[in-house]
User: Which sequence fits this backbone?
């Protein structure tokens, strides 16, 4: 069955809908943190609009509050966002036929959630998943963007009025867990998740958030090695 562009886009909207509620508190936290760090509402919204990357936004805001040098802030944000290079390499075969007027906006909208939901669909066994892939991605990614900006604005406007008892930060790991679990389909992906998670915890105190990059590289390497060994064993059996 071949989907139309609108159907593919709507499928993206439906796919991302369950995790939107977890994105809202994440955006609000970024807004609240930015105001508490001394940024003006305009600066906070500008960061949300131009960077559009929650983890690096939070890290940059915290470093700003601590009076860190600009070069340190920029370097830290770049290190945290290096994972998007891996995401891009993974998505490239699916989008390489698109012109730049498509690829540039899609790259700007790239998030952890958009990547995971899209790549899981592309690698799945649904017959219609290979039709208008970029429209499905756009349905997911644009929805996240449209939810993130008002959520950040709400955090900026409410600021300190949000009580700590709401524990909004608890929604952040829950959102990523909801993305992770469906992707654990075989032993290589499970090993990659275990190795990456272990390294992330063990290296949490490394400067410039290098532990995040170390965990990502270690997890990917473990998964690739496990997959290679699995394929070798299957080849020997045949």
Assistant:
């Amino acid at each position: 069955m071949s989907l139309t562009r609108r159907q593919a886009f709507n499928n993206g909207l439906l796919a991302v809908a369950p995790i939107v509620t977890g994105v809202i508190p994440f955006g609000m936290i970024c807004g609240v943190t930015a105001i508490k760090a001394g940024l003006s509402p305009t600066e906070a919204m500008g960061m949300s609009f131009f960077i559009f990357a929650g983890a690096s936004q939070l890290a940059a805001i915290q470093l700003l509050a601590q009076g860190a040098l600009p070069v340190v802030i920029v370097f830290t944000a770049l290190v945290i966002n290096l994972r998007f290079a891996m995401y891009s390499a993974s998505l490239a075969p699916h989008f390489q036929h698109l012109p730049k007027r498509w690829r540039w906006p899609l790259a700007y909208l790239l998030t952890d959630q958009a990547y995971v939901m899209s790549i899981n669909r592309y690698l799945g066994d649904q017959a219609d998943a290979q039709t208008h892939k970029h429209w499905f991605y756009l349905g997911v990614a644009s929805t996240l963007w449209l939810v993130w900006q008002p959520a950040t604005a709400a955090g900026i406007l409410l600021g300190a009025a949000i009580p700590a008892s709401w524990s909004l930060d608890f929604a952040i790991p829950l959102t990523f867990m909801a993305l992770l679990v469906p992707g654990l389909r075989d032993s290589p992906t499970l090993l990659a998740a275990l190795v990456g998670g272990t390294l992330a915890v063990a290296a949490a105190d490394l400067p410039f958030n290098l532990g995040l990059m170390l965990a990502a590289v270690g997890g990917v390497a473990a998964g690739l090695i496990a997959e290679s060994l699995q394929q070798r064993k299957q080849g020997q059996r045949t």
Remarks:
- The longest helix spans residues 5-36.
- The chain has a mean pLDDT of 81.
- DSSP finds eleven helices and no strands in the chain.
